[in-house]
Design brief:
3-stranded mixed β-sheet, about 40% helix, 9-stranded mixed β-sheet, elongated, alpha/beta
């Protein structure tokens, strides 16, 4: 019985060894064959993101051709995937790219676009900002339907800027993002507002779609409290004074609403 057990063990070891050797040989052969495979084309996949269309398949191929060169005919192992990703990630509307090749000779590119939440417009230019406060220029191919903030945007940036502003500027921008977030969570207010304007002090003025009132919000902060005051204005002051009695309503002060004809 012991002898049979020893032979079973020896046979099992031999089978395992032969299998390992065969797999190694096949793997080496496949690797050698893969090294000879050349790029026969580029397949671009743009991740679906609520209908965003900042970047097209044609754009991505142009970015690669212009920044990296022609990949067609190159051996797959010679293609610098990291460099291609670096080129694509440098485009303002692209949040992240992934490049990889397959044995059929295809270079695959997966693109994730930046998702803007607000559009800033001033005399110096226009920019989108995403939820993290990253700014990037307006795109020629596509216009995203997001809230627009116009006027004296207090950001020391030039047309075409992409990236994050200074720490002090990020504080102001963060307030604007809070406003946009508040509106997205309060559909009634979002539908009621026609314009979000910024004056020379960087303060926010809200213009409703109905009525002649303009609501002075002050610094972009504490929007829950300020919109609660606007609700009180419509609830208590308008019924008493009448619609369109005032053109200017200041809700920036604690505990009071200041109206002016």
């Amino acid at each position: 019985m012991k002898l049979k057990g020893i032979w079973k063990y020896i046979i099992a070891v031999l089978i395992f060894t032969l299998t390992t050797v065969m797999l190694a040989v096949l793997g080496h052969k496949a690797k050698a064959e893969y090294k000879e495979v050349t790029c026969s084309g580029i397949k671009v996949e743009i991740a679906e993101q609520d209908g965003l269309n900042f970047v097209t398949v044609g754009d991505v191929k142009e970015y690669i051709a212009g920044g990296y060169g022609n990949c067609s005919g190159k051996r797959l192992e010679e293609i610098d995937l990291a460099r291609i990703e670096e080129i694509l990630d440098g485009k303002s509307a692209i949040l992240k790219s992934e490049a990889y090749t397959t044995r059929d000779g295809i270079l695959h590119i997966i693109i994730t676009q930046r998702v803007p939440v607000v559009r800033l417009v001033s005399g110096r230019g226009g920019w989108y900002a995403d939820s993290e406060g990253y700014l990037f220029p307006l795109q020629k191919n596509y216009t995203s339907r997001v809230p627009i903030v116009d006027g004296s945007i207090p950001l020391n940036i030039k047309s075409g800027f992409k990236g994050t502003p200074t720490a002090a500027e990020r504080q102001w921008l963060g307030g604007i993002l809070d406003l946009v977030d508040f509106l997205s969570r309060n559909r009634r207010w979002d539908d009621a507002i026609a314009q979000i304007h910024v004056n020379e002090n960087g303060h926010v003025i809200i213009v409703p779609r109905k009525g002649r009132e303009k609501f002075y919000m002050g610094r972009p902060e504490e929007f829950e409290k300020k919109f609660a005051k606007i609700e009180n204005y419509y609830r208590y002051i308008v019924p008493e004074k009448g619609q369109d009695a005032y053109s200017y309503v200041n809700v920036s002060f604690d505990g009071q609403i200041v109206c002016r004809k």
